[in-house]
Amino acid sequence: MNPKNILKYVILGLFVLNLPTVALKSFGSVVGTILSYGSFFLLICYYLFFLKGKPHVGILICGVLYFAFGAFQLMGEERDFFTNFAKFFIVVFFGSSFFSEITRKEVRIVLAIGAISIILNSVYFDNFNGRAAGFYFNPNGAGFVALFGYAISNNMKAGKYKIAMQIIFSLAGFLTFSRTFLVIWALINVISIRSNPKNIRILVAGVVVFLALLVVGSAFDIGGKRFDKYKGVLSDETTTEDLGHDSRDETWALFYDAIFEKPIFGYGYGSFQGGGIKGIGAHNTYLLIMGESGIIPLLFFVGLLIILLIKSWRLFYIEPSLFLLCLALTIYLLTTHNFYDNEVKLALSLFLFNKIYQVEELNTISSEESYQIKSEKG
């Protein structure tokens, strides 16, 4: 195999499979630190030797604004702030070109490996009170990976391979017992029916798989508080209100007053994360950006997402997975407070953003060529 491709797959695995954290948890801080810094070093080397291109300006500006405004009044260690900013800058500046040349098939295969780790985690390894996370060590983060894989598999040609991929990603997401995953998964399926009415079969099959999981899950030692709640719905022991107990909106409400107190510059980096002004994280990226760095970085970030949603919607009948991925990311960020400091989410977002612009450009070129040919014939 070409050494360049080997290095590419190593870098892709390090970032998308969260391997530095896996090494940290499994083999200790020394190995974990080596892999962590090694992944950034390899990314820089790959860019310098094999790539040319500019970083994704939109996400770079959004991140720089967030860190710059948040630096006015740091809460926590300065070292953590500068380390996270450096990592963000390296991933976006050097990684934009890298993830722009990654194919859909390559990222789908790597995501499938991550999804399989979630499935195995549900049975063979310690999990989060019945909620599997695999390589990602957080059920909600694992749910995002499963969502991303499921949405990107929507573009595959119909066949056994596509069905297998969708089952793997769906099952992995179900095993995280993430309410966010279930809502977005259902939304993705409903919207995908617009592009192909036959996709309703996938929705029905997924519902059957989830119900079967609740029925036979105990036989495979799948359990835990969230599992019991969902299973209780089948026997009327659990209500929809019980499922919503301790939901994200209750956490968000704790931060509303603080946001209105300092809407311009916020409370500073770290204030809306664990150990911040409330002792817990906001579990909402939009609240976190507003609370830590104020309204300006938030407006830029929301503006970027709106632009990408519009662009991907215009391309829906050309490549529906792009809109589904963009929508999934936008909604998912309502329930997580780690984006700029999370390499997995940054890497997958860069892949998505670049693909939207690439498909848009190709479609524009194709339209112009078609118009030119018609004009010449006329």
Share of residues in strands:
under 5%
**Topology order in helix (H) and strand (E) letters:** HHHHHHHHHHHHHHHHHH
Number of strands: 0
List segments where confidence is low: pLDDT < 50 over at least 5 consecutive residues: 232-240, 368-378
The whole-number mean of residue pLDDT values reads 85
Using the alpha-carbon principal axes, give the shape.
globular
Assembly annotation: single chain
C-alpha end-to-end distance: 50 Å
Evaluate the radius of gyration. Answer: 21 Å
- Could you describe the largest sheet, including whether it forms a barrel? none
Helix content: over 70%
Give the key terms.
single chain; 378 residues; mainly alpha; 18 helices; 71% helix; disordered C terminus
Describe this protein's structure.
By secondary structure, this protein is mostly helical. Helix content is 71%, strand content 0%. The chain is built from 18 helices and no strands. The protein has helices spanning 3-16, 19-27, 29-50, 57-70, 78-100, 104-124, 139-152, 160-175, 179-195, 200-216, 225-234, 240-243, 248-253, 256-261, 285-293, 295-314, 320-332, 343-377. α4 runs antiparallel to α5 and α5 (78-100) runs parallel beside α18. The relative contact order is 0.12. Residues 232-240 and 368-378 have low confidence and may be disordered.
